[in-house]
Amino acid sequence: MLLAACGGGGGGGADASRPPSSADYGGVCTPEGQKLFVRSYLDEVYLWYDEIVNLNPANYSSAPDYFRALLVPKDRYSDGSGSYSGFEPTSLAATATAAAGTALKLTAGDSVPEYKTVRSPGGRTAGYVRVDDFLTGAQDQLITAFNYLKAQSGVQDLVLDLRFNGGGYLYSAQAAASMVTAPAAEGRVFERLQFNNKRQAESERNTFYFTNKVQFAERQYPAGTMLPQLSLPRVYVLSSALTCSASESVINSLRGIDVEVIVVGEEATCGKPFGFRARPNCGITYYAVEFQGYNAKGFGDYQAGFTPQCRVTDNETIEPGTANDPLLAGALFHADTNSCPAGTATGAPSKASLLSQGLATGVTAGRSASRPASASQPGVNGRLLLPTATP
């Protein structure tokens, strides 16, 4: 959707045979025109459009204020305050649309800052992959990481470190989950997107499936490239309250096809099964929740987030993925014992206990960054982005 020039008329005027739409008011940048755009836009795309309480637009000084006032109380994610940045993914500009949230990282190589093998205290070999977002380029980096793990002999467990992952493109999360599984998962539902009841046709054609091939190419691996699949029945996910949106889709989708997902962390994930597209108008970009995602079992109601099975307190002074990383040590303890480490009242192991376990680190195949800046932010705007501009 292109940003309309402000001032002057809209999109050619409304057709008298139909009710006015947001397209008719797009680019009408008077205060009244912008509010008419907001109300029409929400009525068309908002997941909970039928729960909106009608309000007098004259009582609000700006269109973003009016937009926020119209949102239903349960909506924690829609936003109408950001200026349109014009950001489009480099290699998917023609097919992808951006959604709400400040980009955590756009630098090449930062999405997957580390991957390696580690050895547990009990002698098990595990792959460790840290994924800080699912933005453009993450899929290529993930394939490189999984190719490395696939080439190692005797990898018994996988630890996906998503503690800083605020989300990103759904196609990238789809590829990540598909590489955990076996080729037999091909064609099973990864996530179904449910739009409002005015948009049933879009709901019917917006289903993502587990796959053994690259579906949406980035720069390094073309469409049709076979994905390296680890064929694991169990995966450990290191999480935090920053783990959001597309990263939560990885957890939910794998559980939907009966892959055991052991979540290790201090608190529940952010709880965002919803998604949206950017809709710019008159210099403001609006993000209204448009759909909810459901796994193969029809589950998508995790607004309270995913609670860790192993409650382990993270330590911000310790480098993630290193020998003293409490979350990684907790996952490897479970891999050895099939139980969570005993410890404090919060369920976390004591620091002395972790140090005594003597976590052995194997080859670090790729590493570029420590804790990202997002780790110190008070919150995160999750993303759940679609790889198609027109559903």
How many helices?
Answer: 9
Mean pLDDT across residues = 82
Structural class: alpha/beta
CATH architecture of the domain at 114-276 and 292-372: Alpha-Beta Complex
Which CATH top level class of the domain at 114-276 and 292-372 fits? Alpha Beta
Shape: elongated
Order of helices and strands: HHHEEEHEEHEHEEHEEEEEEHHEE
End-to-end C-alpha gap: 13 Å
Sketch the major β-sheet. 7 strands, mixed
CATH superfamily annotation of the domain at 114-276 and 292-372: 2-enoyl-CoA Hydratase, Chain A, domain 1
What strand line-up does the widest sheet have? 14-9-8-4-3-2-15
Q: And the CATH topology of the domain at 114-276 and 292-372?
A: 2-enoyl-CoA Hydratase, Chain A, domain 1
How many E-type strands?
16
As a percent range, the share of strand residues is 15-25%
Helix content: 10-25%
Please tell me how large the radius of gyration is: 22 Å
Poorly predicted runs are 1-14, 83-108, 344-363, 374-391
Region (Disordered): 6-25, 365-391
Protein name: Tail specific protease domain-containing protein
GO molecular function: endopeptidase activity; serine-type peptidase activity
Domain Peptidase S41 N-terminal: 34-78
Summary keywords:
391 residues; alpha/beta; 2-enoyl-CoA Hydratase, Chain A, domain 1; 7-stranded mixed beta sheet; 4-stranded antiparallel beta sheet; 9 helices; 23% helix; elongated; disordered C terminus
